[in-house]
Amino acid sequence: MPVCPHAGGVALCGSFQHLSVFAYISVSVSPGYRFVEYVDHLHEHFVYPVSLKNGRYLPPADPGYSIEMKPESVDYYEFPNGRAWKT
Predict the structure, then answer these.
(1) What percent of the chain has pLDDT above 70?
(2) Pairing mode, strands 52-53 and 56-57
């Protein structure tokens, strides 16, 4: 049964991008029957955001898991001392 993982949280799209590529290369080697949700909000906060082409995740071009946040975003939103929580 096809399952579509929910990737709407912070950095989950980056993680699912890698899982999808791993599943394709190592598990099924079939482009069909693989569904991964894509949510593009919050991508401006990541050093290497996920990218798509023609509705498909592109393999990561950079090392890591595409979940590294920009230092200025972490500083701004860090709880409880970030500026976002003080205003």
Answers:
(1) 84
(2) antiparallel
**Which tokens sit at 32?**
């069909």
Mean pLDDT value across residues 9-33: 73
- pTM, entire model: 0.70
Which long-range contacts link 58-67 to residues 24+ away (Cβ below 8 Å)?
58/17, 59/21, 60/17, 60/18, 60/21, 65/14, 65/15, 65/18, 66/11, 66/13, 66/14, 66/15, 66/17, 66/18, 67/11, 67/14, 67/15
